[in-house]
Amino acid sequence: MNQEKQTKKQYLQQKLLEQQGEARIVRKIIMIVMLVIVVVAACVGIGGYLYVQSALNPADPDNQKIQEVEIPIGSSVGNISTILAEQGIIKNAKIFKYYIKFKNESGFQAGSYKLASSMTLPEIIKSLKTGKVVMDAQLKITIPEGKQLVQIAHIVAEKTNQDPKDVFEQMNDKAFIDKMRAKYPDLLTDEIYGKKVRYPLEGYLFPATYDFYEEKPSLDMIVTEMLKKTDEVLAQYKDEMNEKQFSNHKLLTLASLIEEEATARVDRDMISSVFFNRMKIDMPLQTDPTVLYAKGQHQEKVLYKDLEVNSPYNTYQNKGLTPGPIANAGTVSIEAALNPAASDYLYFLATSTGEVVYAKTLDEHNQNKAKYITNKK
């Protein structure tokens, strides 16, 4: 009997020891599981933080190329976020959406925006609210009014550290021009390839200041921006152009003649009226800048012998407009070409003070020359 009790006691002790051992194993397993859960949670948290932090950074800090992003009317924050992500301006649409809500940003407008994937989220938001590029331009190129293609090539070459001859040659390269035509087919029509046209892009590079956000923009990019500006400007006058039967080429040609003849103190619509009045009676325009363009050189004065230069651009020898523009023209000259003043004048000349005097007859014009011009041709 005592032996049975002793055996039973030993059995219970053994079971207790086994249970204690199992309990220790279970506790170890639980501790390991908990540790794994903590580690996984920490990793997920850190990973999530890094993911969000990465999504808040610029999509491509080294890519400063400006893109046009169109935000349609009625776009929600979610729509805007998706559009920006699809264009590569931001990394993650959802993060951007939550960022906007967290910052309590609003006031986004529909329209066309210039953005870059190197921009920060605050810069993008500011642009979307103001419609302006908030990045600092890496390069500015200013093209004044009345500049010819060869002069524009020199300006671009100087700003981009290139050979002016190389820039000018590329601007006249047919493959290059055809590439531009593919971008702006409505602007660069077949007229620029007229057999008497000297330089196809002459007069088409609009006078303005252009900002570039790349350190070394290509000539392709530079010329594209200039043509885009011309296209945008002419689009404002399409109804008038159609009504008055002006093609892009004809309008820019006439505007260039007005631009080159005008002084700072002249009303361009008056010069325009003189040109229109002469064309109405089939009289040559006889404008000196066309002679200089025909000669391909700058002179302080046009001499009588210069009037004999054999060129389709010489308006003393040829009636009507020149085959194409002789320079670029600003909006004032473009508007003057579309809306000449009402006058009966057929002649004008600039005085030494920059003022312009007009005459209806050749006799009046000669009297004005005798009065205002001391050094005759």
Question: What keywords describe this structure?
Answer:
single chain, 377 residues, mainly alpha, Dna Ligase, domain 1, 4 domains, two-stranded antiparallel ribbon, 14 helices, 7% strand
How is this fold's topology laid out?
Elements (H helix, E strand, L loop, with lengths): L1 H55 L10 E5 L5 H10 L6 H10 L8 E5 L5 H10 L8 E4 L6 H12 L3 H8 L2 H10 L25 E4 L6 H17 L2 H6 L4 H14 L6 H13 L7 H8 L35 H8 L8 E4 L5 E4 L2 H11 L5
Antiparallel strand pairs: 1-2, 3-4, 5-6
EC number: 4.2.2.29
GO biological process, one term: peptidoglycan biosynthetic process
GO molecular function, one term: lytic endotransglycosylase activity
Explain this structure:
This protein has 377 residues and is mainly alpha-helical. The protein has four domains: 1-56; 67-130, Dna Ligase, domain 1 (2-Layer Sandwich), CATH 3.30.1490.480; 139-235, no CATH class; 238-372, no CATH class. It is 51% helix and 7% strand. It contains 14 helices and six strands. The strands form three sheets. A two-stranded antiparallel sheet has the order 1-2. Strands 3-4 form a two-stranded antiparallel sheet. Helix 2 crosses helix 3. The protein is rod-shaped, with a radius of gyration of 37 Å. The chain starts with a helix and ends in a 5-residue tail after the last helix. The relative contact order is 0.08.
